[in-house]
Amino acid sequence: MLAIACDKCRRRFTATDEELRVFLQQAEGKKFALVLCPHCGKGSKIAADRIHQALRFSTPPAGSEEPTNPAT
Ligand SMILES: [Zn+2]
């Protein structure tokens, strides 16, 4: 999750990890991702590095606790 201040309306909002991943995919190859503000609907430029960092901190470590092949 990442706290973002909108460039356009100056209001704050947070993007969830899932949303951040989508923004990164859309910004593939670029230095900035366009993050849509829920208040005004405009896009704010957020540094891809910042998003990468936010995801690194919030993503749980890859473990093998999930059942991989549940019996039917
Ligand atoms: Zn806004």
Map the helices and strands:
Blueprint: E1 2-5, E2 12-15, H1 17-26, E3 32-36, E4 43-47, H2 48-58
Helix pairs in contact: 1-2
Give a written overview of the molecule.
This protein is an alpha+beta fold. The protein has one domain. The protein has helices at 17-26, 48-58; strands at 2-5, 12-15, 32-36, 43-47. Strands 1-2 form a two-stranded antiparallel sheet. α1 runs antiparallel to α2 (48-58). The longest helix has 11 residues, at 48-58. Bound molecules: zinc ion. Zinc ion (ZN) is lined by residues 6, 8-9, 11, 37, 39-40, 42.
Along the chain, the helix and strand elements come as: EEHEEH
Q: What portion of the residues fall into strands of 2 or more residues?
A: 25-35%
- The overall strand count is 4
Query: Termini separation (Å)?
Result: 35 Å
Shape: elongated
Structural class: alpha+beta
In order across it, which strands form the biggest sheet?
1-2
What kind of sheet is the major sheet?
2 strands, antiparallel
Whole-angstrom Rg: 15 Å
Q: What is the typical, i.e. mean, pLDDT?
A: 87
Number of domains: 1
Number of helices: 2
Regions with little confidence, pLDDT below 50 for 5+ residues? none
Determine the fraction of residues in helical runs and give it as a percent range: 25-40%
* Distinct small-molecule ligands in the complex: zinc ion
